[in-house]
Amino acid sequence: MEYNKAISDLAVGDTVEGYYVLRAAQIKTSSSGRPFLAAVLADRSGAIDAKAWDYAGPVGAANEGQIVKLRGTVGEFRGALQLTIDRIRVRGANDVVDLSALVPVAPMDPDAALAAVTRLVASIADDDYRAVCTAMLARHEAAFRSIPAAKTVHHGFIGGLLMHTANMLRTADFLAGLYADTVDRSLLLAGTLLHDFAKESEFTFSSLGLVTDYSVKGELLGHLVMGAQEVAEVAAASGVPEEKSVLLQHMILSHHGDPAFGAAVRPMCAESELLSLIDQIDSRMEIYREALADLPAGKFSQKIFALDKKIYSHE
Amino acid sequence: MEYNKAISDLAVGDTVEGYYVLRAAQIKTSSSGRPFLAAVLADRSGAIDAKAWDYAGPVGAANEGQIVKLRGTVGEFRGALQLTIDRIRVRGANDVVDLSALVPVAPMDPDAALAAVTRLVASIADDDYRAVCTAMLARHEAAFRSIPAAKTVHHGFIGGLLMHTANMLRTADFLAGLYADTVDRSLLLAGTLLHDFAKESEFTFSSLGLVTDYSVKGELLGHLVMGAQEVAEVAAASGVPEEKSVLLQHMILSHHGDPAFGAAVRPMCAESELLSLIDQIDSRMEIYREALADLPAGKFSQKIFALDKKIYSHE
Amino acid sequence: MEYNKAISDLAVGDTVEGYYVLRAAQIKTSSSGRPFLAAVLADRSGAIDAKAWDYAGPVGAANEGQIVKLRGTVGEFRGALQLTIDRIRVRGANDVVDLSALVPVAPMDPDAALAAVTRLVASIADDDYRAVCTAMLARHEAAFRSIPAAKTVHHGFIGGLLMHTANMLRTADFLAGLYADTVDRSLLLAGTLLHDFAKESEFTFSSLGLVTDYSVKGELLGHLVMGAQEVAEVAAASGVPEEKSVLLQHMILSHHGDPAFGAAVRPMCAESELLSLIDQIDSRMEIYREALADLPAGKFSQKIFALDKKIYSHE
Amino acid sequence: MEYNKAISDLAVGDTVEGYYVLRAAQIKTSSSGRPFLAAVLADRSGAIDAKAWDYAGPVGAANEGQIVKLRGTVGEFRGALQLTIDRIRVRGANDVVDLSALVPVAPMDPDAALAAVTRLVASIADDDYRAVCTAMLARHEAAFRSIPAAKTVHHGFIGGLLMHTANMLRTADFLAGLYADTVDRSLLLAGTLLHDFAKESEFTFSSLGLVTDYSVKGELLGHLVMGAQEVAEVAAASGVPEEKSVLLQHMILSHHGDPAFGAAVRPMCAESELLSLIDQIDSRMEIYREALADLPAGKFSQKIFALDKKIYSHE
Amino acid sequence: MEYNKAISDLAVGDTVEGYYVLRAAQIKTSSSGRPFLAAVLADRSGAIDAKAWDYAGPVGAANEGQIVKLRGTVGEFRGALQLTIDRIRVRGANDVVDLSALVPVAPMDPDAALAAVTRLVASIADDDYRAVCTAMLARHEAAFRSIPAAKTVHHGFIGGLLMHTANMLRTADFLAGLYADTVDRSLLLAGTLLHDFAKESEFTFSSLGLVTDYSVKGELLGHLVMGAQEVAEVAAASGVPEEKSVLLQHMILSHHGDPAFGAAVRPMCAESELLSLIDQIDSRMEIYREALADLPAGKFSQKIFALDKKIYSHE
Amino acid sequence: MEYNKAISDLAVGDTVEGYYVLRAAQIKTSSSGRPFLAAVLADRSGAIDAKAWDYAGPVGAANEGQIVKLRGTVGEFRGALQLTIDRIRVRGANDVVDLSALVPVAPMDPDAALAAVTRLVASIADDDYRAVCTAMLARHEAAFRSIPAAKTVHHGFIGGLLMHTANMLRTADFLAGLYADTVDRSLLLAGTLLHDFAKESEFTFSSLGLVTDYSVKGELLGHLVMGAQEVAEVAAASGVPEEKSVLLQHMILSHHGDPAFGAAVRPMCAESELLSLIDQIDSRMEIYREALADLPAGKFSQKIFALDKKIYSHE
Lengths: 315, 315, 315, 315, 315, 315
Description:
homohexamer, alpha+beta, two-stranded antiparallel ribbon, 9 helices
């Protein structure tokens, strides 16, 4: 028996033991009047229906989203695999679990990425912009290390926002050099760092850290307006001159490029124009990366919703 | 000689004396090497070119936008009227001037309008929404009495914002009654009052109070975001619960209805949906009122830019 | 046993007796060769599958859409409730049935609403417009009292058109007062009354009065063109001057505001501009009213097709 | 001296005598206090400014749009040609004038074109459709022979509507044969004949027969709705079954193809789909014909407003 | 027993013998461990599930898309017809099969159609254009006789491209006569012939000749660019002057009319404008022909994807 | 006297001697019957009207666009500066002229830029892609060193295409490193080098090397299709496998990103997606660079046509 076997590798007859995510759980009553647990178990590789017969608890609906330890056997029901659970309990405080096997995690070292971000922030020449960045990083560091950048479109995994921001900062740094006579490097890097911080309050998250939905505030205001508002407060508290605060807010408010894509205002300076293009580059390259991972060479994908088109995997 | 004769009534040969706006002014040198003042004078009814020969000051470019007192004679140059100025000076501190003859003014009594607004605000049942409204009215009262709501599109005259808001509040009050089971009257009236306050900082104004242009902040952030930000601050300072603050901000951010028309987010509750329609009604009725004023019955107007169409004046 | 129990309240084991709508019905043959009735029964609260075993008629496909009286028992089949019918017959001429329990009905008193409409029509000052309104009301009164304003989008219930028109007339009356110097009250009220009368021939209706589909004429011409055509005839028959007839037709042809939303021409006078906005207000407020009825406070709805967005139910 | 010399051929020093259109005329007073006539004269080839010195009438503003006989000499003023008039009078009842030299006329024989149209109408197999066509032709024959199909876009000349309709009928006849199993030839030809008849009341015309503007009715209702309305009346008067009348109205209401291009409804049957394409073909080929007439081979035109692009004249 | 009975006519109890297309095939194992063939059989009229019990080959997945001969009996499984196969083999080299019963075929005589195309090509007056057409016809003749013009939208059957092109050439010939002073008949006919030849390499085809998908090249370049490229080569090889080659390429590149519909450039000469309209006519008439075939008179269709609307079948 | 004084620095009374571009020239006749030259002279800084009195040649219309040497005096006519020419002749073969003072030139060292491009091409790992790049560079080197990338929008100066391509290659090189697991560096760099080569034949150029207009071929085919066609030829001649040739063509055909912006197909692989974004970045940064050059800090520009918005110059 393989411990913690990936769900996508399970086959009829397998005995299973290990930690999985309890995505859904309900205590039901069978036609013979007996209680049973109807559950969906998941790991990073997929999901499987599961039943614990003659089971009335304690694991149940209240534990949805938590990690459970279980033992069971794989069978088949109406043409699909089904796991019959023998034993199940909620993960204890001392259980050591490899989270990266259970939820998708960014393919990078978060410490290194955060260090790189911090170094780039420290390299911002303008004292005011650097002060706002430092203060914002301090306020958001914990979430910034771990939250996804989206539910599913791109970077929808643990560490997604950090990976997205770190990539964008590297590109911003490069382009600030290439277009040094047109672009203020300090403003560009500051805007890039700050542009998505408010995703922390735009979304709600599962206990495992994935995005579950938009928050009420997120739907009614949007992360652009929320982000600009926090930066305005932090800039005021740091004694930053108003024009600089307004420029930082403008960077955030316009980073979706066009009102049709959610921008509250259109980019009107070289740095905000560039930020919206850098954001597009990193978003789209990540969509390609994720889609190409499952696509054989020489084939077209299905239509990808976020791109509104198919893509091609060349040799 | 008619004192303060309206510019649109001037004819060749008239002697002119009175107060006018110095819309443009420049000291130039004639082909014979003599200095002269080339000016444009304006009142509410129109504008006229003017020259003061052999004149080197003190009135000049620095006085543009101010009110001057002058005396002169109307002649003709290349088919257009031209005023030859005999005497000109800037309006003194003691000169009594009828401002409404010089700049366009809302066709209403501002005291009565403000009183009506105040009464409606006082009638807001929800203590939190009323507190925010009262605080915002207190902060903005002076400007709210006098500023236009736009440069030219509609309500582009002294008192325009007050007239626009007062009309909208009356309609909001009526519709809150008609749709009482769907709409929260307190939220609708509060959002209506607050929706355009930030126009005070979105625009720059001439010394006579008309809109001259957008401010830097106005262009880069827009009055929706600025307005939501101030309301967030005021609500926090007043101890208003966050959900109510978010709803007020949402009302302001969405009152243009659609991102294509400048909304930062789309309306998502009955009150914000209604606010954007009430705003459309009052804006368009004012555009019609202004356009129909100059249009004979039975005729179509020229294409009106803000409506992207011609309109018809029926009998 | 609860008589006429609402379908949404039924549970396994209930005995049922009462009047329901026979939404679908077919006589089939079981695998054992016996005839049975497979039906769907509905009331205002929902629908349920039903079977009458060993039953060959007389109730069958020919009675679809009619009201039946039945007695039966609620069971379960493949996870869904199913009603086993013991007795069933078509509603007789003397059966007293509470229609409002079976089909959705406007939440208003139709007599009061019609009286309010009639009073407002009587208040139209212009003799010509009032004459057309009076003649049209007389031609359409029966249908106007009862037909829905749509199949599903909004006001899709008995009395929907009357409720929609009555609400709009109240708003038109209010706005005609607020914008009295720009708007001709007589024209606005007349256009409001007349704008949707042709829905009577644009749709086909079930025997219970609900919209089943578009008529051929409704699809090929649309209720705007049909409505304008009838008003042209009635106006001509009443000796109304042509300009007034043309203005009334224009009100009807343009009341969808924009060709993209079905307007045959764009509104070109203040009254038609206003009519299209009043129509939007009442349509959207009704969509909100219906959607909010099922939405708990603090939640967002699913995406609503007619609005192309989710809506929020605040506290 | 060349009698009735084309205006585009005039040169400084020419003596002119003949008939021209008095496009504009005004009696003015010179700086020396003498009356003179300031006029614009036009023929099919162009226009020229003209002056009659020391002239107070009788020809004046009241004669704008009429044909005058005059004698004069061509000079130059501020770099442009100017005609000094010696004698001028309004065309008398007995004066024989070649209208085709003064206003643009369709390049076809109107009698032959009308005969061809009449033959195709006579060939319509369906008695009902043919009856409506015959009745409509009889009602409109005089205008149909002569009015333009537009002000400027295409066919903006005397006989334009007849030329446009005759061409379209020929194409409709051909395509009805090619797609005989999909298309009802009678319906297609009838719709084609009728589609633009209402242009007669959509426009106002100068005394020489050219389109001067839209009529009030034309702006407020449009020729599609007006045309459908008249066909409905004529069909009813002829006892045509309602479905056929509705189909004819649908052909007219949908012939602009898409609401964005002015269609009141979208084409929903093969014949209306085809009619809208046949209309596009003839409109665009005429736009090309007119634009290519002035364009040397190997050159691109200026951007053509009605096509929103430049076109190319190949060898 | 009816030999080769159409699948849409099969009923429970029928014995079946004949040739059908093996659309899908898989050797599976039953719950009792026995091998069986699970297949889908198709002919022009429809498809049916089929099983061959205790069957391990030789017919299997490798034969998908081929024609098989079989014998079996029609039964029922879970409410749907199912064919139990007694004998099955792949069609042999000597089996005579009526292909038109198995796959959809254009309703025309391909020899006659090709002859008509050839005659029209021979009638092209311009030697250069005719030379390119003749060369291209020779290169593509085999495929041109048989390939469909699309997967499903229109002309998605054997011979579809030939039927589409032949119809369009007839219309081009007619319109070249009607607009002889504006249109170069040689260019119009040549562009019409050539416009879709590259569909041969834009698609991949099943062994029976139907379109299965886009080719890699077809997705990445499109048939417009591929077609223009081949014509450029052929024209160069034939010594055609460059302007003519460019015009032919322009015809092909612009024949979708608008970039939104896939045109690489917009039509800029009368012939390319006309070609795009002729293409629309034939495409849409074929969509109507196919949709009307299944639509009873007096009914509307479901929404047709390619037209984005319903269509109506009149009497 | 300052030799070759910049036109923007000229003032009344200046004596002028030096080389200028003869932008326009015409021999005219004065009112006194004497011939004179009416010309417009230009250098990089601006343009000025000029007259040579009593002058009949040899310099005239035939020399437009050439460089002339002249001597004259600056006066004033109707409020504008005017140069009275004393002597004028066409630049001789031995005259040494500083071209960069007369026409706009890219702010870079063309040798260094070309060397950088060549180095990056040499670094392409894939032999096939590198071969095509090398061959194309060899074919186009002379033009590639000097032609502008556009008439006016961006990079509309000598060396513009080289500057644009060199910048884009640097960014492509950087992003190929950042997204190394998603992007094929060889394909990205090759597509970037090749994407605009066909601008050489899309435009026509003045004798001084600036873009004057589109060529016929450029208008009818566009530089995307022309570029793909040449690359297809070169790839075939170099024995490059078809898939690689197709990918290169796809890069060129899709580099405008969206059909609405001129793309013949939409980008469907990571490299073409990235190329279109890199192109946007460099185009827009250059538009900002040019616009900001003339814009004081703290000011907004006029609306910039290519961006459809104003831009802001911050401190």
